[in-house]
Amino acid sequence: MNYTSVRNNDTIPVNSIPELDYPGFLELNVSTLMKGAGSHCVNYFGFPHADKIKLICCIASDDHHLINISSSIVDTKQPLFSFSKHNLVFEKFEREIHENFGVLYRDHPWLKPVRFPFNRFNKGTTIADYPFFKIESEELHEVGVGPIHAGIIEPGHFRFICNGEQILHLEIQLGYQHRGIEQLFLEKKKLLQRITLAENIAGDSVAAHTVAFVNLWESLCNYQPGRHLQLARTVALELERIAIHTGDLSAICTDVAYQLGSSVYGRLRTPLINFFQKWCGNRLAKGLIRPGKNNYPFTNELLSELTNLLNEYEKDFEEISEELFSLPSALARFEKTGVITTEQATMIGTVGMSARMSGIKRDIRYSHPHDLYPELLHQPVIRNNGDVHARARLRKKEINQSIEYLRELTREPGQVKNRLDVLANPAPQSFTISLVEGWRGEICHCAITDENGEMLCYKIKDPSFHNWLGLALAVRNNEISDFPVCNKSFDLSYCGHDL
Amino acid sequence: MLDNLKILFHQGKQYIPDVTRAEVPGIFRGRPVISSVKVNETELAEICPTNAISANPVCIDLGKCTFCGECAFAFPDKIKFTTDYKIATNERNRLTIKEGIDGPVELNPELIKWEISEYFSSSLKLRQVSAGGDNSCELELNACGNVNFDMGRFGIEFVASPRHADGIVITGPITENMAQPLQICYDAIPEPKIIILAGTDAISGGIFEGSLAVNRSFLSRYKIDLYVPGNPVHPLTFINGILELIRKRK
Q1: Cβ(A385)–Cβ(A339) under 8 Å?
Q2: Which pLDDT tens digit goes with each residue over B126-168?
């Protein structure tokens, strides 16, 4: 075997990952492992290994519920043939490897900077020197937006090339939010510091990123979380999905000037996040998820409160949704706006909601279930049109589904256990991969430890890493005035991407 | 139309009538109270992920605190977090809560610029800049203007252009890559203008303190008019902090 297969949250000795020569590594990953519709790359990264770079590629096989891992050691001075030439989904991973370590590629389409990290290989250029795609024309014009946007929103620069009101091309430049999180995971050695970092990767996906971290950490420490912990984590993930989807529906209404929808969905989100506050003292679930313990047990009082809350919520949610999705003025803005076809989505490898709205069955809850998802027998909601309407409708359906899951999970009173367990130290020379389906899509955390069990490499991949390109393609040939609703219907993360 | 009116009617009353006296639901980690009970102070300080706790006497710096509450779990007799959300102030060292003192965090009227009460007391337009913020403070600042908190009733609003703004609200630890855009935005705001730091990351760098990707030199150049602690800031903390700032006079 020239690769090793693991399940989600498995820990394996790092030397059990087969090391291939680069041509064999390329051949294996682009030809063998990526064959079949259910295969996609969940992470592909490098880290320093003596004076060379070790590349690790993780290809998930959704049908077999496995992740196939292989590795190769390369010299930064030798130009390589790229994976991207064969399959475009690797395009950004290779740009990142090039940006971080100076690995050269002979046939990569365009090795543009990804985020200008502080520890990049080439410090000769800064974020102000980003090489935008340009068109020489007397008739076209460019529109630059950002990095600071009009609303209360994170920074990123959008450069449109337009023909009149029509967008021909959009390029999205990110990196403004880069805080050096992956490096801080190595430097900050207290466990509480690391979980705090995980909470701060993306503040709208606190539950998703913290569950990814704790599942990874517990696996590294060979700790099996009890049912009460898994229940709390699954409930938190589904509640976060409902809350953020609701807020997004509000924002989508704002962008088509439907004031009532904006206000109603907006206020419907409030009791959901206030429930997090009642549970753990923080409206966005910071402090809730901890490795090996639960400071805020999911008590029976909380359980019955959640039941009431969902009943109340559902009534008003259905009422406004029925109105929104039959409102001609809203539908006219939603339908056939910002389309990503199944072919495009497959080609660029979108994940999560952005994949499911284009007819791709990609959902970690179904393909690599963790915590209590195996019991829920999740079947992803799929839409085929790939437009704003599909993204809005998908959210509505996923909210309904998550409400059902929460009801199912809280049917029987949980066992309330308080903080107690002590974790062992992380296993030395190990590799762990943790996948979580956040509301936005699949989150992947990978860790590698050295011979003392210290963190050698920590690699985070947010769904936005893949999906930003989806937004750029979706707006082509749309009116520039439809950009806000397209953008909001994707609702991608800047900080999750920039790390 | 009738359906829309029906929906409107079904929402009932959603706004908080008095945001200065509203109670936060359930548990909330606001202003901590530190008792005089003797504990192993080194052990206590060691717990904190951001070195917000100092020993002898025990103090918690709310500008560094992530409000995770782990210290209160480990030493429940020593530290308690109250639900007091009014923790914004305009003097950095007033964010430090000392052992044995259980008093409100207040603004220092001496430090409030005269232009603030003169010009901004019934209309304050703010430009928000996220400089490495994780979108949690941004979500909460958006929530300040929603139908529940309705900050607009006090004439306080976020605006799109710095040219229309009376001040800047910064979130995030200020990344190197945002240092220049932040400066450009600040320079574009007409005088007189104020600076508000929202959230632990903005006030001290928080968990990102010491990261080489962060560049906080902007802050050393200007006087900060308001510090709003929180991880993220609670809308009530933010609104009350600003109301204090624009209503209080020397």
Answers
A1: yes
A2: 999 999 999 999 999 999 988 889 999 999 999 999 999 999 9
Q: How many domains does chain B have?
A: 1
- For residue A263, what are the CA distances in angstroms to A154, A165, B145, B148? 22, 30, 11, 10
Cβ-based neighbours of A480, under 8 Å, separated by 6 or more: A143, A160, A162, A165, A166, A167
Q: Quick one: pLDDT band at residue A416, thresholds 50, 70, 90?
A: low
Q: Is B28 in contact with A180 (Cβ distance < 8 A)? A: no
- A264 and A371 within one domain: yes
**Sign for the pseudo-dihedral over CA of A128, A132, A135, A136:** positive
Tally the domains of chain A.
Answer: 2
CATH number of domain containing A259: 1.10.645.10
CB distance B49–A190 less than 8 Å? yes
Q: How far apart are CA A285 and CA A414, in angstroms?
A: 20
Contacts of A127 in chain B (CB under 8 A): 177
Quote the crossing angle between the two packed helices A227-255 and A483-490, to the nearest 10°: 170
- Rounded to two decimals, the ipTM of the complex is 0.92
The pLDDT, as a whole number, for residue A47 is 93
At B157, which CATH number? 3.40.50.12280
Question: Measured between CB atoms, which of B73, B141, B207 is closest to A193?
Answer: B207
* CATH classification at residue A17: 3.30.460.80
State yes or no: cis peptide before A147, omega within 30 of 0: yes
Mutate to test the interface with A, among B177, B196, B238 (most CBs of A within 10 A): B177
Size of interface A-B (CB pairs under 8 A): 193
**Do the Cβ atoms of A128 and B141 come within 8 Å?**
no
- With beta carbons under 8 A apart, name residues in chain A contacting B1: none
How long a stretch of residues is chain B?
Answer: 250
> Would you give the distance in Å from CA A297 to the centre of its chain?
27
Mutate to test the interface with A, among B175, B215, B218 (most CBs of A within 10 A): B175
Contact residues, chain B, for A180 at CB < 8 Å = 208, 211-214
Span A395-408, pLDDT tens digits? 999 999 999 999 99
Same domain, A67 and A196: no
Give the CA angle between residues A183, A184, A187 to the nearest 5°. Answer: 95
